[in-house]
């Protein structure tokens, strides 16, 4: 009987694994804001036990991705414009810090990787490859965070990214946005590669300030 129980447990993903899967589905756009998250449906979809799904939803609620409605279960939490601005303001402070740290720690390998990303971003904008540019944008920010060595900031930023990723993607798809953000990203790359922490922080903050200024247009496209 004990062997059977262990076998059954091994057949289902654990709570943390289920949380990772649902988190990826939310941030990837598979679930829309305010969409109900029904335990039975999620259990069947992801091959997980109801208990694992319940624990996963509780974890995602603490991360701000899911909200629980009394007597109605859970749903994907929608982020308001005001909250999106606040999140980006926090990003501005933390990613500015990380850009400065990255400039302090930059190596020749880092410089080569950043310059390659910059060249590929320019090529993507020139060819109109908006999706490719969006992916390179994400990779550039991730590389700067990795270079910074600031683990606490990275942990906070990962949680905030999950809450705001849908808006960030919509912003990246806005006509003309890549042409606006490209020189900002190149300024970050240049300052980090030059080993200039104040300039790197200023460039990252200027870029994210531009993001804040652009966010209202997502709410009122016309």
Automatic annotation (TrEMBL):
<dbReference type="InterPro" id="IPR036388">
    <property type="entry name" value="WH-like_DNA-bd_sf"/>
</dbReference>
<keyword id="KW-0804">Transcription</keyword>
<dbReference type="GO" id="GO:0003677">
    <property type="term" value="F:DNA binding"/>
</dbReference>
<dbReference type="InterPro" id="IPR008920">
    <property type="entry name" value="TF_FadR/GntR_C"/>
</dbReference>
<protein>
    <submittedName>
        <fullName>Putative GntR family transcriptional regulator</fullName>
    </submittedName>
</protein>
<dbReference type="InterPro" id="IPR036390">
    <property type="entry name" value="WH_DNA-bd_sf"/>
</dbReference>
<keyword id="KW-0805">Transcription regulation</keyword>
<dbReference type="InterPro" id="IPR011711">
    <property type="entry name" value="GntR_C"/>
</dbReference>
<dbReference type="GO" id="GO:0003700">
    <property type="term" value="F:DNA-binding transcription factor activity"/>
</dbReference>
<feature type="domain" description="HTH gntR-type">
    <location>
        <begin position="12"/>
        <end position="79"/>
    </location>
</feature>
<dbReference type="Pfam" id="PF00392">
    <property type="entry name" value="GntR"/>
</dbReference>
<dbReference type="Pfam" id="PF07729">
    <property type="entry name" value="FCD"/>
</dbReference>
<dbReference type="InterPro" id="IPR000524">
    <property type="entry name" value="Tscrpt_reg_HTH_GntR"/>
</dbReference>
<keyword id="KW-0238">DNA-binding</keyword>
